[in-house]
Amino acid sequence: MPNYSPFPSYDPYRTNRSLRRGFMNDLQVTDPSTWSYTRGRFVAFGAAAEQRPEAGDMIYLFQNSMDPSEESFRLRPNGNIYYRFRCTPLVCGNMSCQGQTRVMTSFAPPGWDSSHGYHYGNPFNPQHQTRDRSCWVKNHGKTYNIDTDYEDDFPVGITRTFDLEISEKVVSPDGFPKVAQVVNGQFPGPLIEACWGDTIVVNVKNTIKNNGTTVHFHGLRMFQENNFDGANAITQCPIAQGDSFTYKFQLRQYGHSWYHSHYSSQYGEGTFGPVVIHGPSTANWDEELAPIMVHEWHHASAYDAFHDSMFSPAPPKADLITLNGIGRNHELGIGAYFQKTIEEGKKYLFRITNSAIDFHFHFSIDNHLLQVVSVDYVPIKPFWTNSLSVGIGQRYGVIVHTNQTASANGKYWMRTEYFDGNVKDSTFCQFPQQNYPPNQTDTQRVGVLSYSGAGPGEPTTTRWNATVGCKDPVFEPHLEWRVTPPQNDVVKNARYVGIDRSKEMHGAFRWLLAEQPQWLNYSNPTLLNIANASWNSEYVLEPYSYNDPEGFVYFIINSGGGPSKLTGGTHPIHLHGHDFAILSQGLGPFDVANPIYNTENPPRRDTAMLPAMGHLVLAYKTDNPGAWLLHCHIGWHAGSGMSLQILERQQEISSWIGGSAAFEPAKRGCRNWSEFLARHKNDPDVFNPIGQDDSGI
Ligand SMILES: [Cu+2]
């Protein structure tokens, strides 16, 4: 029986070894005369491991990997194919949702255009404008799509390995050089890109001379993976200079987010990067763009800026706003606008992330409406808006239809504008930023969207007549939650948060999220102490042992006021290890005596805004034992102490994350961290616990 392998030596991704795993390279047919194929090179076709292609299946061929003109053939009835399966997941096109098998393997789904920036290797870009994006993969004979309850069910993908080195490097986003702390020499760091259901291994090496580091993957549930949450002093010690730490986790969610250092003010120095997890969408788009990370950049060291923030009434002012590391410094007249060129008449998926330390903004593109399809890692029922509030740590997936004609030169401003308000009342949103005054329509321009063939000059378009502030948009998740009554005592859990100006703690007036500001020991993480019966009160640890995985704990957070007459403020509140439902969010303290909760499919996400002098009521499911941070994502506030840790189902943590072996990486890391500190205890440039001036996260 002759074997026939049409293109046995073809390797579509020979430029990047890490991608080869995603592709099948053997196709054997017992009798080539029983089937036909058009000329071209075999890239991939598919069905899952237990499946075989069947008669009538559509097979995709590509001429070559750089210029993927798509061709296809159909297997004839009784075509007999043997194959060795090496690829997963399998992206399904719209036809498979109608009962036919039309599947392709890919690293990046069709429509991902490498010309827009980030990519590993060489993704292809066939013409799939009619593609139904609600469908994702066929895997093990099952289709995973937008209706799959991803909390409990997800495809089984492949393992992708990434190496991240945290090091110091001079970067100059606006031409002004600064020693930054960056990932793989890039600012922002490289994209971590994968598919829903993949397992991710990230080897982090710290080569910074004087600081530790960690990497936290913002918004991932880290289900049964608390030990890889990357929160120093909670789940591990900082990674010492010269040491490495390997994070491993499975992607149960999809969408986009970011990873960042959780070590002190380090991410403000550039230690962060984007994450994209390809998956289904609640609305169709043609192409997706590389994620856009909005960051505020300080010419001064972020560590110094943090220090200043502790002793001045207003936080330090940023020098410029960057989009993917590019920005215009209005004071010095240097730097550049972020540029994006797109084609006319297409629907583009934009992935927006606020990776700032202290900057809240509204994102908009002149003349273009935004169709919002995802909020944080939650797919939502699409809604339209012309301007979108993005708090620190929040993300939005938005579809933009490039069908506008208003601009004479085919260019449109992208804007990140903000509102300040009165610091003394509920209108307060944030402090003014140097060089970026609120309501100043020149400085809020940060990027240019150009249609291909656009004329010379800057855009001449005007901003939407939009109201900006710090209010989260209201939306409905695609997969609905009904929030059941709380397991905990909500009256006890109604707290006032803010800054306590009555007494200094650890040398400063500090922000707090509980009865006292959090103050952690870098060298003694919670996870290595989970046998404890009592805790240092400065660790601000809240044990909850409710063990109904479908049950909820409610948190009531009031901004300012209370018995200590705290100063309020607007704060992006972020919970690790869970999405939470927003049961109430608004002005004034929450009325605990007459509570009104929105329990019918409320907005759900992992970072939500606590309004100034207002309240935020959130509810999370007690389904993921571990030690999880709840904190304000303003870097200065988190460093000040505005955080607490939830110790969820303490007795079950060890077995939940895999028993004693799961603690070994943290134990080893802590030994190395302690040795590093001991070695450098007389070195004034190296962190010394005696001089600790921040909370430890
Ligand atoms: Cu805050």
TrEMBL record:
Keyword tags: Copper, Metal-binding, Oxidoreductase
InterPro entries attached to this UniProt entry: Cu-oxidase-like_N, Cu-oxidase_2nd, Cu-oxidase_C, Cu-oxidase_fam, Cu_oxidase_CS, Cu_oxidase_Cu_BS, Cupredoxin
Highest taxon of the lineage: Eukaryota
Transmembrane segments: none
Domain Plastocyanin-like: 166-280, 291-422, 566-651
Xref: PROSITE patterns: MULTICOPPER_OXIDASE1, MULTICOPPER_OXIDASE2
Keyword Metal-binding carried by entry: yes
Coiled-coil intervals: none
One annotated GO molecular function: oxidoreductase activity
Protein family (similarity comment): Belongs to the multicopper oxidase family.
Record's protein name: Multicopper oxidase
